[in-house]
Amino acid sequence: MQFSPLANPLATVAQLETSGSQLDGVPSDLEDSVRFAGARLTQAAGILLRLPQEVIAQAIVIFTRFWVGPEGGSLAEHDAEQVSASSLYLVSKLSAFQRSARSVVNVYAYLHSLPFTFIDLDQLHEKKDAQEYYVTEGTYQLRKKALFDMEQRILKILGFRLQVALPYTLCITYLQALDVFGHPRASELAKRAVAYLNTALLSPQLLYLTHQPPSLATAAIYLAAKDVGIKLPDVEWWEVFDTDREELGFLVVGLLSVGSFAAAEKEKWGDVKIPLTVDALEAVINARDVDGTHET
Amino acid sequence: MASRWANDEADAAEAARRKKEKEQKKRMKELKQRQQEDAAQREPADRPPHKRRRLSSSPSEKKQSSQDSSSERRLLRFDAPTWGPCRHVSNFETLNHIEEGTYGWVSRAREIGTGEVVALKKVKMDYVHDGFPITALREVAILQKVRGHANVVDLREVVMGEGFDEVVLVMEFLEHDLKTLQEDMPEPFLASETKTLLRQLASAVDFLHQNHIIHRDLKTSNILLSNRGALKLADFGMARLLPPPSPNASPLTQLVVTLWYRAPELLLGTPIYDTSIDIWSLGCIFGELLQKDPLLPGKNEVDQLYKIFSLCGLPTEKTWPQFWRLPNAKSLRLPRDAGAGGTAPAADTAALLRRKFPNILTAKGTDLLASMLSLNPDHRPSAAEILSHPYFAENPKPKPPELFPTFPSRAGQERRRRKSPHAPVRGQGNARLEGAGEVDFSGIFAGREEEMKGAGFQLRMG
């Protein structure tokens, strides 16, 4: 059977119900935090590697798929940081924009050296001591092996299903179909819609794993038009793009909630790094347990 | 006591009621439709047609339209695959080995759970410096993408062994490959059979090209044939997606396609190429089906070019203006009068092919083959154009695949011999005529020159 190239593999109900991490005793709020931080890390690394957003978005979707379901990867077993690096390496290899293992290792070493997850732009631009993120040849060989091992692990867990259809080009096509490009603020609208699609990549509701690209594009346009104040047809235009009202409503709520989720995360973690390795995660879980016993 | 699931009177009544309701609904719908049609017919007479749909309609109209929509609109739903971890390779037992391909070993195996016979292709883990082999990754990605076409081999799943170094593609098993089959056949395929095979092949290639995929290794040993006459394209190890035009995308490898099927522009080191290189290979395969032997079995790059030019004629300024700008063209010395249309067989490929296949091929067939073997890549037809060529419409008509003769399968029984060269290996560098190595070109040409009487070309040594 042939699947449409516009369709993505979606997570099954069983896969959404639980995850390898939860089975290993990782609290689900912590899992959300780590997945969110991992997706942001992938985005940052992709930008530093000068990859196009399509490649970065695919890598984030692969990263997200990896952790889903009882047979998925577990945070108690694999470093989120490593999974992020290998996803990006793997996806870039399949694209027309391959990046070398050395570049990927260097970029992740640099990002690892940043003091906290939610860093201010000013702090980022402060002059840094290059010693902190220099990767020696010996270390590089070790990291390269880890990069390749995790690449294989990802392939195994995903059963080689790496296809990721993205909503970006669809979104532009839909805007054209809605005939908005004559409007003076049309490019603002398009930018806003694309921003929503990028936001959806970070959603704790795993929107890219539960909804097909046409629906994501439609919801992004709906919200962007509200934000920019451009009036769209007064009929149920979303049905033209194969999205029913219920799905549109769900996605709109999902997309809007990412902002408050991100703000809550930033408040929660403040000057602390979200644990992106197995060891760091264990430390956080242990610290929570200790706190728990103190309270009782 | 009767079973609670048994039909009773209440059920019958209920069914009747439902039926009646349905009929009523149907009648209502028909009525409404008729009314609408009438309205639509009347409308143009009453007032000028709307150019655009009115967005703010009167409340009553609006209500009606929303009612219509809820019952009639159907939204497109995509069938989406899911994913799960790779199964273990021990779900299959190997029956016999078939062959060793460019980057993997192929064997026939049975799935223990279902008893189904499949072909297993074990991926060679050679290129450890780049992680998981990109060729295998591309093959899996592309096979997943083209799944479902009748003339492309079906990838069932990917299984893994204990360690990471054992990755096996599970594919449908077909009894023959065209190369081995032709070696075993006493006579070439009939004209009607050739047509069917070529049409199936062109259909597969058309499908790939429509999906922006170049196969880059079309050859008879990569074309499988079932005992029911179904042809399927296999081995996508060299295939890739045509990259979007972008200044910072990495360039395409020049060293692709097995030598005998490699297009002249690749041999001459072109930095950019497209789907037309597959059409060249298709032309070579067409010729091979006609004569049962490879059309252009060159010994090395230089010999290959020599064979191409003696089959198709020499390129001229008119037929292929870009020719002299190709990197390796500078090292060729072609007869000066070739461009002026002198004694050398100029670019009339059709005339040369007619001489080569005097009785086997009709005028239309020769025309098709000659266009596929155009030296200038821009002159080759697309796969879709091949499919609509009148050659397929004329007699003898293509033979229905079901009527194909069956042959004893070698893949089912024993290991194959392998005589044709492999596809070039990744990372061997770019195609360069100079790189042909220790082969003594002058020697080859000394002999050839006499044989060919002026039609050849020379390599300028040093």
UniProtKB/TrEMBL annotation, chain A:
Q: Where are the bilayer-spanning segments?
A: none
Q: Example GO molecular function term?
A: cyclin-dependent protein serine/threonine kinase regulator activity
Instruction: Show the Gene3D superfamilies listed in the entry.
Output: Cyclin-like
The lineage's top-level taxon is Eukaryota
InterPro entries, sorted: Cyclin-like_sf, Cyclin/Ssn8
Q: Which residues form the signal peptide?
A: none
Q: Which GO terms describe its biological process?
A: regulation of transcription by RNA polymerase II
Descriptive protein name: Cyclin-L2
UniProtKB/TrEMBL annotation, chain B:
| PROSITE patterns (UniProt xref) | PROTEIN_KINASE_DOM (PS50011), PROTEIN_KINASE_ST (PS00108)
Task: Enumerate the GO terms in the molecular function aspect.
Answer: ATP binding; cyclin-dependent protein serine/threonine kinase activity
The Protein kinase domain sits at 92-392
- Renumbered to this chain, region (Disordered) spans 1-75, 391-433
Q: Which reaction does it catalyse?
A: L-seryl-[protein] + ATP = O-phospho-L-seryl-[protein] + ADP + H(+); L-threonyl-[protein] + ATP = O-phospho-L-threonyl-[protein] + ADP + H(+)
Record field: compositional bias (Basic and acidic residues): 30-48, 60-75
Q: According to the lineage, what is the superkingdom?
A: Eukaryota
Q: Which GO terms describe its biological process?
A: regulation of mitotic cell cycle
**Pfam families, A to Z:** Pkinase
Q: Which SUPFAM superfamilies match?
A: Protein kinase-like (PK-like)
- The protein here is known as cyclin-dependent kinase
Keyword annotations for this protein?
ATP-binding, Kinase, Nucleotide-binding, Serine/threonine-protein kinase, Transferase
Enzyme class per UniProt: transferase
Taxonomic classification: Eukaryota, Fungi, Dikarya, Ascomycota, Pezizomycotina
EC assignment: the record states 2.7.11.22
Where do the TM regions start and end? none
Listed Basic residues bias regions: 17-29
Identify its protein family.
Belongs to the protein kinase superfamily. CMGC Ser/Thr protein kinase family. CDC2/CDKX subfamily.
Gene3D superfamilies (alphabetical): Phosphorylase Kinase, domain 1, Transferase(Phosphotransferase) domain 1
Q: Which GO terms describe its cellular component?
A: nucleus
